[in-house]
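Whether sequence alone determines local backbone shape is best considered at the level of individual chains. The sequence in question and its structure tokens are set out directly beneath this paragraph.

===
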Amino acid sequence: MNNKNKIKLPLLVTVGPVSAWMILLVAIPFIYIFVISFMKKGTYGGVIIGFTLNNFQQVFDPLYLKVFGESLLISTLTTIICILIAYPFTYFIAEKTTIKKTVFMAMVIVPFLVSSLIRLFGWINLLRKDGIINSILLKWGLIHEPLQLVYNNTGVMIGLVYMLLPFMVLPLYSSIEKLDKSLLEACSDLGAKPATAFFKVTLPLTMPGVFAGSILVFIPSLGYFFVSDILGGNKTQVIGNIIKNQFITARNWPLGAAISIFLIIITLVLVGLYQKSGGNMDDLGGI
């Protein structure tokens, strides 16, 4: 066996399965959806072969644009809330000993072992008018009537934050863990206040983790239709709901595919902005 064959064999063994996986589960489905987006809807559903741009014109219908705008607002607020919760929590556990770090990170990851639907239905028991949270607030006299915390945008954002918070914690932990503590000591020696050291040193050095976490939270929140279905009822819809309804209810696969392409374009734009900002793709792919 010559040297070229010796080199090719390890490459086939290591890269081959990953390449086959990506082709079968990413490339082929994407091409399939892309092709369908240019076809026509059948009279009773299904797809009729024939080229048309009407599906992409419908994407910019005012009704859909309104849903897109609401989805972007909900996703943006969800991302901001996740940052505000995850950053201090992650910074707190990064200062702990190895054993305590393991315990805290396990607390973040363990909920993934339970079905997402079960956890979301659990939130309904907490948030509904006669639920635990309203009962406690009423008992303590903090409110005079039950708050509407579910079946609206508030409930959807609570569900999204709960579901996606770990995706903000993990990349932030990676960035904060790598932070050189001697830089903070130098700031202190030079007379910088803790707030100044944070905004001048800590935050800029951990921004790659913030950007990575923001993308990992923002993009899924646009498509997590089951969260809005359970906690939002029929009052709140995100882009994922529109896509699901077109494929399942309206049976308009071409339009659903066109909206999916639109969502993919948003994803690619965000990833491109992340790369231009100096972000490392390993922070996204490693989560």
